[in-house]
Design a protein that fits this description.
Blueprint (H helix, E strand, L loop, with lengths): L8 E2 L8 E11 L5 E11 L8 E3 L5 E7 L2 E2 L3 E3 L2 E4 L9 E9 L9 E5 L2 E5 L19 E10 L5 E4 L2 E7 L4 E12 L6 E4 L2 E8 L5 E8 L8 H18 L7 E7 L6 E2 L4 E5 L12 H16 L8 E2 L5 H19 L3 H23 L11 E2 L8 H16 L11 H15 L3 E2 L1 H10 L5 H4 L1 H4 L1 H4 L5 E9 L4 E9 L14 E8 L5 E9 L3 E6 L7 E4 L8 E3 L4 H10 L3 H21 L12 H12 L5 H7 L5 H6 L6 H18 L1 H11 L9 H24 L3 H12 L3 H13 L5 H12 L3 H12 L9 H7 L10 H12 L3 H4 L5 H16 L1 H8 L12 H13 L6 H12 L2
Helix pairs in contact: 1-2, 2-3, 3-4, 3-5, 4-5, 6-7, 11-12, 14-18, 16-18, 17-18, 18-19, 18-20, 19-20, 21-22, 22-24, 26-27, 26-28, 27-29, 28-29
């Protein structure tokens, strides 16, 4: 999509390109103000397409020369496309030479070639390569690349590109060069270039196949001590992919480069992954356990793309989930396989589902709802979404579940591996579709449920929305028969009024009164309604439905408190055990929210719920990480999705009131939890140690909340001391957050000290900003603090991480403070969306989505939010990125 183009692109309009590019020879003379790019391509006409003009994409380029087979040729410009009509006829290869210049230092969009600090970086996915040279910038055009980089050696001693380094040396005038050759054909979005003052951690490894490889992690000088975990994660990724899927590293070297200016988390460019520094840099003094876990996951994700995304890529951008959904599934499996205990695997699964339910389910129910394989878009950057990624991963997970072959392969891992083997056998080196992937998995398992139901299963790729499964149970004591009726439905979404039944694998079990499991099965729901019958039962069981979250659906079952308490105590499935506790809390929150006249002070938790939470906290066998998840109340965003009309301030007030009651009622238990878990010895980011720190952090936060209610100064004082004495960032930040979120008078002192300690650590200062912008004091008036933070010398709108740390933390992650009756939050939002759009449209479009669900808001917030969205939409020079989001938000009004 070119800037200024406003037509919608449809998947049904896909056509093969009129030309193929066989090879690309690029020469860069790097200069921040004026980089010269010589692009020599060997091309040929596509014999399957009617002869036509060659149209090459380009943006913000200065064109100097166009040659065909070494001779000048006529051309014309249409919008931002370079059009050549007088090209050789027939299918013979011809050489097209294009010489352009660009200005990387002025590239604030961080798409294409840009500078960050004193170094050059690229980001070409999805359509950034056209900002480097004129090209057929589409994923189905795959070519081999040879890249020559030339630059001032003193300023840019490191010169990197894709593939293998074949030559390097010095040039006149203090310059030097490096020549890189990528032996594998790739689309232009996987091109990468890095040049600058960088240092590397290196590790040589030998693969299972006996080949030696060089792994490198490049960072700016001074950050090398923060790269050990990233390197360990990369080595673990290489080993895991060989062991689990038989996929080996296929290059002599594999490089990761970190930069602080990056729109995304990371990018899987072939052999040269470029990362946002937050997903590379970590040591115990500057990174939390969450950071360590995220680095492991993202490093794995980008490495796994080497095969699922690079060796096999997308035919078109509508197939984005082909690589992203599959690779998210792979990185989730990687993290779970690295967990040494079953409980840690369960915790990882719960964490992944929480993301899905708090981010993707709302997207599925909002104006930006789309299938994991969209049918149309205005700007492809807007479809790098939780639907394509996280829901896409769940659809892949269901395919693994549905190729299970019984006791010999109960999880479907062997069958899925066979399907992956066939997928690579058929399509390695090609650009293909989601249909090609599902067909390979099914064909490799011809007797599986997936193969039998494949046409219907593919509705997950074409239908948007979150299916809702309603379950109703009945017990006939005379016959000892329990019947469970399952029915499915899916609400209309934009452009899809009618939904056909999905294929929904539902893992379930039946729990008896004494806590034993009397039945378990995997049922695949395919009809609108089906009834399951279980016989030989002595008493009515408690159904444990959707174990392990076996499908991305909303489950409706009218559980009683007694049934939920039984599941919480006895269920052998960790996910449903956690879910039972969440439902107990949600039921109480919803009851209080619905009673408009009920004052917060009159909201009283019942003793049964409190005792249930105490039993979880004190349970001798439950993992500490699981306890922390079970004792954390459902998020305000998740609660809002359960309501037809939303008052975010009411939700916030109720949640805070219940947290305060849990803090006070379990005070002695929180003290026990803190004392029993706060000493862990030498820091390790493993699941057991991080789980203990998570529970300690929650306990400390609850004790500080209780102190706010009672006026006690002991625990805030202990929190401050722990903040000062902490030997790692997790404990230090947990203590700081406990003071800030509880509104302690000691918070200001701790915040000031924290900034002084870490003022030179950009990623740590991001946390400092985010904590304050995401906090809600007792008055909820956080907007003045946010505005003050934006005047801080360390704040910059041009750095995506810093902008997200303040603006997004307030607008997207702090609903109780953002949604104000006076509309001040919405005015602030519209100002910042417009301001960011002029600098970096991708970041602006992400911020624009903070008001996706405006139609659910209670008045006067609803009208005020609509007015703010309309104000942004009325901006005449808005980017396609932002315009698509706000236009769709208003489209159903």
């Amino acid at each position: 999509m070119r800037e200024g183009q406003t037509s919608v692109i449809h998947r049904s309009d896909y056509q093969e390109p009129a030309f193929w590019i066989d090879s690309v020879d690029l020469c860069f003379d790097l200069d921040p103000a004026k980089t010269r790019v010589l692009n020599k391509m060997k091309m040929r006409r596509n014999p399957h397409v009617v002869p036509q003009a060659l149209r090459l994409d380009g943006e913000e380029l200065n064109l100097s020369r166009v040659l065909v087979n070494g001779q000048g040729t006529s051309f014309k410009m249409e919008d931002s496309q370079l059009v050549l009509e007088n090209l050789p006829a027939g299918n013979d290869v011809f050489e097209l030479e294009i010489f352009t210049t660009c200005a990387p230092a002025k590239n604030t969009k961080l798409s294409g070639l840009y500078t960050s600090g004193d170094s050059f970086y690229t980001q070409c996915e999805a359509e950034g390569f056209r900002r480097i040279t004129y090209f057929l910038d589409r994923p189905d055009v795959m070519a081999s690349y040879t890249v020559l980089l030339r630059a001032d050696k003193s300023k840019y001693p490191v010169l990197l590109s894709n593939g293998n380094l074949v030559e390097q040396g010095t040039l006149d005038d203090g310059r030097h060069f490096a020549k890189w050759v990528d032996p594998f054909k790739k689309p232009s979005y996987l091109f990468a270039l890095v040049a600058g003052q960088l240092v590397a951690r290196e590790q040589r490894i030998t693969s299972r196949a006996g080949k030696e490889h060089l792994l490198q992690v490049y960072v700016r000088p001074g950050d090398l001590d923060k790269t050990e975990h990233a390197m360990n994660s990369l080595m673990a990724s290489v080993a895991w992919d060989e062991a689990r899927f038989g996929l080996s590293l296929d290059l002599e070297r594999f490089m990761i480069v970190a930069t602080s200016d990056f729109n995304m988390g990371a990018m899987e460019n072939k052999g040269l992954n470029i990362f946002n520094s937050k997903y590379v840099l970590a040591n115990q003094a500057t990174a939390t356990d969450t950071d360590f876990g995220n680095i492991e996951s993202v490093v794995g994700h980008e490495y796994f793309h080497n095969w699922t995304g690079n060796r096999i890529t997308c035919r078109d951008w509508f197939q984005l989930s082909l690589k992203e959904g599959l690779t998210v599934f792979r990185d989730q499996e990687f993290s779970m396989d690295l967990a040494s205990e079953a409980s840690a695997r369960a915790v990882k699964r719960i964490e992944d589902v929480r993301v899905l339910r708090t981010a993707q389910f709302p997207e599925d129910a909002g104006p930006m709802a789309h299938p994991i394989r969209p049918d149309q878009y205005l700007e492809i950057n807007n479809f790098y979404t939780v639907t394509v990624y996280e829901k896409g991963a769940e659809v892949v997970r269901m395919q693994q579940t549905m190729v299970a072959s019984g006791p010999s392969d109960p999880l479907g891992r062997e069958g899925f591996r066979k399907g992956m083997d066939l997928y690579f056998q058929r399509h390695d080196g090609s650009a293909v579709t989601c249909d090609d992937f599902t067909q390979a998995i099914a064909d490799a398992n011809p007797d599986s449920k997936l193969a039998q139901l494949l046409p219907q299963f593919k509705r997950w790729y074409s239908q948007a929305g979150t299916p809702r499964v309603k379950a109703v149970g009945s017990f006939d004591g005379a016959s000892g028969t329990y019947s469970l009726t399952l029915s499915q439905s899916c609400a209309p979404t934009p452009g899809q009024a009618v939904k056909e039944p999905f294929v929904i694998p539902i893992s379930l079990g039946l729990i008896s009164a004494d806590g034993s499991e009397v039945a378990s099965s995997m049922h695949v729901l395919t009809q609108e309604s089906e009834t399951l019958t279980f016989t030989g039962l002595q008493a009515e069981p408690v159904p444990s439905i959707l174990r392990g979250f076996s499908a991305p659906v909303i489950l409706d079952f009218a559980y009683t408190d007694e049934q939920l308490l039984a599941l919480l105590e006895h269920d052998t499935d960790p996910f449903n055990r956690w879910e039972a506790g969440q439902r107990l809390a949600l039921n109480r929150m919803m009851a209080f929210i619905s009673q408009d006249a009920l004052a917060v002070a009159d909201m009283k938790l019942d003793a049964r719920y409190i005792e249930a939470m105490r039993s979880v906290l004190r349970h001798p066998k439950l993992d500490a990480a699981f306890k922390e998840l079970a004792l954390t109340l459902p998020s305000e965003t998740y609660v809002a999705e359960q309501l037809d009309v939303v008052d975010p301030q009411r939700i916030h007030a109720v949640r805070e009131a219940l947290r305060a009651q849990l803090a006070t009622a379990l005070h002695a238990d929180w003290e026990w939890a803190f004392e029993a878990h706060h000493e862990n010895g030498a820091y390790k980011p493993d699941s057991l140690s991080s789980g203990r720190r998570a529970l300690t952090g929650l306990a400390l936060a609850m004790l500080c909340i209780a102190a706010r209610t009672s006026g006690d100064t002991v625990w805030p004082g202990k929190a401050l001391q722990r903040f000062k004495d902490a030997g790692n960032m997790t404990d230090r930040f947990n203590a700081l957050a406990a003071l800030v979120t509880s509104g302690s008078d000691l918070a200001a002192q701790a915040l000031q000290r924290f900034h002084a300690m870490f003022k030179d650590e950009a990623l740590v200062i991001d946390k400092w900003f985010a904590l304050q912008a995401g906090a809600t004091d007792r008055g909820g008036n956080i907007l003045p603090i946010v505005k003050q933070l934006m005047t801080h010398p360390d704040f910059s709108m041009r750095n995506p991480n810093r902008a997200r740390s303040v603006i997004f933390s307030y607008c997207s992650a702090n609903p109780g403070a953002f949604h104000r009756a006076d509309a001040a939050g919405y005015v602030f939002w519209s100002d910042k969306v417009i301001e960011l759009d002029a600098i970096n449209p991708q970041v602006a479009a992400r911020l624009a989505r903070a008001l996706d669900r405006w139609k659910k808001l209670a008045e006067p917030m609803r009208s005020a939010a609509r007015e703010a969205i309309a104000r942004v939409a009325a901006k005449p020079d808005l980017s396609n990125d932002t315009r698509e989001v706000v236009t769709r938000a208003l489209s159903e009004d």
